Amino acid sequence: MKVRKAVFPAAGWGTRFLPATKAQPKEMLPLVDKPIIQYAVEEAVQAGITQIIIVTAGGKRAIEDHFDSSFELERALEQKGQLRLLDEMRRISDLAEVAYIRQREQLGLGHAIGVARALVGDEPFAVFLSDDIIAGERPCIAQMLDVFERYGGPVVAVERVSPANISSYGVVKPRLRASRVYAVEDLVEKPAPADAPSDLGIVGRYVLTPDIFDAIAATQPGAGGEIQLTDALRRLLAERPIYAYEFEGRRYDTGHTLGFLKATVEFALRREDLGAEFRAYLRGLDFGGE
Fold this sequence. Notes:
β9 (about 170-180) and β10 (about 180-190) form a beta hairpin. The protein has eleven helices and 13 strands. The chain has a nine-stranded mixed β-sheet with strand order 5-4-1-6-11-8-12-10-9, with helices on both faces. The protein is α/β, with parallel strands linked by helices. α3 (about 70-80) runs antiparallel to α4 and α5 packs across α9.
């Protein structure tokens, strides 16, 4: 079955970016001049996904406004003859069919995905954690959909993680099936380095089957007292094969301040309208001999 829907959990507090996120969603922080979440939505659309489900919470209205039409803004741009900007604003609101549902309590990633059950229905779907911006020649989720169509089971995106950082990830025990494709033999949420079954950490892209919802419903709170998606996948693994895919591309973890800054600089340097001047500016900075 073709994957038509994608779920975007976006109900977190964004505490790493306080005070900037006190009154605006972290998903709306600009990476150069585009909100973080828009990069992920565009990746989904490029892969043929047509329905976007965003799981929100109180204080997230700006996300809804961003993907909606703004007649007053469009009229003002048209009157000023700013037609390029007008086309861009209309393109954003026309990207996909977008629906919203509230997560009333922040009880973990697994719980957030479970909240979307009624909107997803009985069909496979993708999950995007928009903090993870993945740049590459081909959208990461499109690569994963190829794996899903080939093997017919849930697919998680993985990348190599250093021992120093492994305890921040869900980690798979892999068995190689094909180039970059692994059958998952086990999953562990946030293991100590000595207990990690491999160095393949799960990152923010998933292709899931609807039976994950029953697994989530049966999963008890785990690490951090939250309902972890990794734990639900481990439960599902007892019933069906799950696959891990080591994607091609570069991931930027914009959920942390340093990762956000690195992504901002590198994305700006790639821009045709900004790159050359920005690069010259960086080269001319005086760091006081450091």
